[in-house]
Amino acid sequence: MYDDISQPESVAGAMALYKKDLDKYKELDEDEILNKLSAEELKQLETALEEMDPENALLPASMRQKDQTGKKATGNFDRDGLLSYLEKEAMEYKDREDVVPFTGERKGKVFVPKQRPMESRQEEVTTLDPELEEALSSATDTELCDLAAILGVHTLVTSTQKYDGNTKEGFSNVVKGEKMTPVFDEPPNPTNVEDTLQRIKSNDASLTEVNLNNIKNVPIPTLKEFAKAMEHNTHVKKFSLAATRSNDPIAVAFGDMLRENKTLRSLNLETNFITGVGVQALVDALKDNDTLTEIKIDNQRQQLGTTVEMEIAKMLEENHNIVKFGYHFTQQGPRSRAAAAITKNNDLGGGWKGTCRGGAQTVSWPIIASHLTMRNNFSQSPGLISLCGILVLCQTMEQGILNLNQHLSRREITGIALSYKLKLIRYPQ
């Protein structure tokens, strides 16, 4: 599809067709089209423009503020006429006459500050022997600097002598300027947005990471297409969308994506314009997602609020797969709950770290326990259980070592081993 466009003749033909299509729009009157639109159609047009440019960066500053009243205008607004009317009214209006005329008479005494005598400081005169005075008067600057260094009088050296290193006489310059290393701006993101979108739609196996960071000119509909395409993609494991001016509709679209996608492991939505509504949509979606292990939503346009932060903490307590969560909580309660949940999830290894030594499939703790129960029956021989790199040599089920309905952390399983004097064996993960 792209090979034909890359030829010079094809490019010229395409440009000619593009210019021909634009010619039919030159004669259109935009004002006439807008006047024919109804109030509901104008509102729909305004909503569409807000999705394309949520910050109104393309409009001048004087046109970004919406009308704050629904009243109809009583007449045409003429700024020049209004200014001339105000000036005329101001000139014709008589000033109020003073009740007591101003005579300019001064009353009271004029304040005169007292003159304080200047205290003259007399310098102490030090007398030296005639031989010393003659030696010091005939000494050069270099000799005086050497004498000051020997006596430890560093204030004798003036700033001119200290920093003047061009002349042969005087104090040598020991201060050298360091060459500053130039710091260049980071290059723009080289990701091709359209090509990446097509590769996601085609489920390209070589595309495992998508980086759209700092690309601010991506339209909102295009970002929604990314979210829609990711619903059925089975190869992309990391998606980064930081500093792309994404808003709540984008967050809602990616929330719907998380309900369908079972491959994505990391999602980055930092430094955008997402509010509490968008974050709430992501939190609700993560309750049904058991594959995402990392999500970042910090540095948004405004604080999310206590209600949203409590919902985030509740979600982290229920979702045992998230081991990295990027957000700075403003309230102490949700912060403590989220920190405890993330710590427990890391101890559990995301819920999928437990493996059976003899097995080839990675499974969770309850599956391991039930597998060993059927395999060893806990009566003939001890069971060998692995969790987060720790092998525990378990005894019989009657000792109450295993709980099939509970996820055990590394600290808990170590405590069980110590209490029953079991053997712990570490092996590289």
TrEMBL record:
<dbReference type="GO" id="GO:0006936">
    <property type="term" value="P:muscle contraction"/>
</dbReference>
<feature type="region of interest" description="Disordered">
    <location>
        <begin position="54"/>
        <end position="74"/>
    </location>
</feature>
<dbReference type="GO" id="GO:0005865">
    <property type="term" value="C:striated muscle thin filament"/>
</dbReference>
<dbReference type="GO" id="GO:0003779">
    <property type="term" value="F:actin binding"/>
</dbReference>
<keyword id="KW-0009">Actin-binding</keyword>
<dbReference type="GO" id="GO:0051694">
    <property type="term" value="P:pointed-end actin filament capping"/>
</dbReference>
<dbReference type="GO" id="GO:0007015">
    <property type="term" value="P:actin filament organization"/>
</dbReference>
<keyword id="KW-0963">Cytoplasm</keyword>
<dbReference type="InterPro" id="IPR032675">
    <property type="entry name" value="LRR_dom_sf"/>
</dbReference>
<comment type="similarity">
    <text>Belongs to the tropomodulin family.</text>
</comment>
<dbReference type="Pfam" id="PF03250">
    <property type="entry name" value="Tropomodulin"/>
</dbReference>
<dbReference type="GO" id="GO:0005523">
    <property type="term" value="F:tropomyosin binding"/>
</dbReference>
<dbReference type="GO" id="GO:0030239">
    <property type="term" value="P:myofibril assembly"/>
</dbReference>
<keyword id="KW-0206">Cytoskeleton</keyword>
<dbReference type="InterPro" id="IPR004934">
    <property type="entry name" value="TMOD"/>
</dbReference>
<protein>
    <submittedName>
        <fullName>Tropomodulin-3</fullName>
    </submittedName>
</protein>
